[in-house]
Amino acid sequence: MNRLTMKHSQQQATHTPSAVGKVYTAIKATALMAMLGSGVVMAADNTAELNGLVGSASTSVVQDQQTLAQGFSRAGQRMTDSQQASAELLKQQEVAPAPRKTRDQVIAERQALTQGASDAGTKVLKSSAQRLEAGIYHEFVIYEASSRLFEDFDYDGFYRTFSVTFDADVHSYYVGEHADVYADLYLSRNGGPWELYHTTDVFTIVDDATDDDFEVLTTLHTGYPTDHYDVLIDLYEVGYSDIVATISSDDVDDLYGLPLESADRDEYVVDEVITEVEVSGGSLSVGWQFGLLGWGWLSLIRRRQQG
Predict the structure, then answer these.
(1) What is the pTM of this model?
(2) Strand, coil or helix: what is 196?
(3) Which DSSP symbol is given to 17?
(4) 215 close to 56: Cβ distance less than 8 angstroms
(5) Bridge partners, 166 (sequence order)
(6) Using CB atoms within 10 A as the burial measure, which of 43, 59, 217, 278 is most buried?
(7) Do 188 and 195 form a contact (C-beta atoms < 8 A)?
């Protein structure tokens, strides 16, 4: 028995003496499987859209000289040591898809927490007006914001992992004024509604310090079609229901049109399977068959020329 070993992707078959026809059949089967695979992905995407579920993992990044020196780029960048450490934490997070939540819904929920003060065990927030009535005078601003792109496993120009960095300041009559704050981060797909993807932990900002940038590293897992996304950041003071500062793609180009997709759409898999073409019964290998066929045609041409 003679054997001719060949390689191709995601297809495995054993061929008999009619190897040429079987190879052609295998090629058609591979193309069909690719088409069916695309259909499965599209069906899964549509299911996710209908279910309205999204999943992502986010964590903060410790700012150091390397991260502070990084600039915005529409192309992917190498992670600094701090970002890489945060990326390892992301891999350990369990991601459970959750219902989509718009910015309007989040704002309404926060405002609702200013009601029902008499309900036992209910968390109650104050309004900005109540803060002023208490004689607390300060204002907030998000001075600047930027984004970075990191992981694109299938090399199609759309990234599963990105980060958003912003510098929030608090101003008052007092030098060294500080405040405890947190932020809601939103994505808008190609001009669509703002949808929450992360709420940060509480952090402290001091006056207009320039070394208190806050960076959030995120990996999108499910529910984010391949497209361009804008970013919006809402800042809240702890204990109050009102937004104290906002910045978005309308204010900063670095938050506009990020090419993103969730990890379930960013898969690059190459499965190389060894396919053995077997020619049994003392027959010649495929290579010899093609050689004899060519020799036969050449002999026929010579006979015609001599005739």
Answers:
(1) 0.71
(2) strand
(3) S
(4) no
(5) 145, 214
(6) 217
(7) yes
